[in-house]
Specification:
The chain has a single domain, classed as Transcriptional Coactivator Pc4, Chain A (Transcriptional Co-activator pc4, Chain A), CATH 2.30.31.10. It is built from one helix and four strands. GO terms for molecular function: DNA binding.
């Protein structure tokens, strides 16, 4: 997975946006990572979806600005 961006949430948690290939398809992964003993590890908290859904996902996120 290639990391696109990171957002620090706390000193030991961050949200990582990455892109990579899984079973022959490009996938987007948005996942919480936790710092354990000076190393970052991905958690089960997050989503992973096909790259072809990115436009719809962005549209959904932009709707949050209305609130």
């Amino acid at each position: 997975m290639k990391v696109i961006s990171e957002l620090a949430v706390t000193d030991n948690k961050k949200i990582v946006l990455s892109i990579g290939e899984y079973r022959g398809k490009e996938r987007i992964d948005l996942r919480q990572n936790t710092l354990i003993k000076k190393a970052w590890f991905p958690t089960k908290r997050g989503i992973n979806f096909d790259l072809e859904w990115i436009d719809k996902f962005i549209e959904m996120v932009e709707k949050l600005k209305e609130y």
